[in-house]
Amino acid sequence: MPSVYIVYVYEIYNFFWTGLGHVKPKPALATPTYEMRHIEHTPLAQDGKVLILAYDHGLEHGPVDFEPVPDSADPEHVFKLATHPAVTGLAVQKGVAEAYYPEYEDVTLLAKLNGTSNLWMGEPDSAVNWSVEYAAEVGADAVGFTLYGGSNREVEMAEEFRDAQEAAREHELPVVMWSYPRGQGVKNDTKPGVIAYAARQALELGADVAKVKYPGSKEAMEEVVEVAGPTKVIMSGGSKADDRAFLERVRAVMDAGGAGLAVGRNVFQRDDPEAILDALEQVIFEDASVDAALAER
User: Fold this and answer.
1) Which domains does the chain have, with CATH numbers?
2) CA gap 259, 184 in Å, rounded
3) Which residues of 130-160 are buried (b: 16+ CB within 10 A; e: fewer)?
4) What is the rounded average pLDDT of the residues 63-88?
5) pTM higher than 0.85
6) Annotation says 211 is catalytic
7) Residue 89 near residue 109 (C-beta atoms within 8 A)
8) Which whole number is the average pLDDT over 237-251?
9) 94, 211, 213, 232: which is the annotated catalytic residue?
10) 191 membership: H or E segment, kind and range
């Protein structure tokens, strides 16, 4: 109940009571209980750093993403990768979670709440495929949600995010926003200013973590991190790159104050995914240089 209404009712009630020689004590206003989650105190982070293994590609991109390494089409293959000590969360859609998570409860489950197939040809949008309440029942430790800022569907998506974010607060689940500007309102989604706007939008709408594209340099990423305030910023892994180029981007993100990475193809499209996870562990959690991480391979 709004506090202004509480005080208003009190004043009317007290008016009649004072006429009878009584003074009604003013009710105490409720203390807010919902606030941004400190991910350091959740399973989603290790020492305040994040390495999410993203595996929502089967819906978002289709089987084409599994062609380089056919074993990656088997969700069990990726669930096993998610048991690597560097991985702080595995992001999957509802059906994959239902089918495989019960056998991998030691994996930190990030429920990717929305997503749309690559067959969709309209203005960027993302269907909400499961609720926070159901994700919590399945056993989710965190939730993720895509927002396409600049799309003609942005308003509806932001309202859907509001519902998911508030439900996540009730269940004490951290919220990761896949903050991807695209659509008719966006001319270039790789410009540093656009990516910084995406990170700020995540803060303004109440996300605990913002997953954004790499803006091209450490200096640009510093601005992205700064405008996100207390919202942690992680880089989207993107398309597969060679080991050094990929790790150098991750190193730049960490040096800029970023919290880590959400990565899919740059892990499961490799013939030796454990090796790149070992290297990421060193760069993200042990503050190693790229040369040192590669030397250990």
Assistant:
1) 1-31 (no CATH), 37-295 (3.20.20.70)
2) 30
3) bbbeebbeeebbbbbbbbbbbbebbeebeeb
4) 97
5) yes
6) yes
7) yes
8) 97
9) 211
10) none
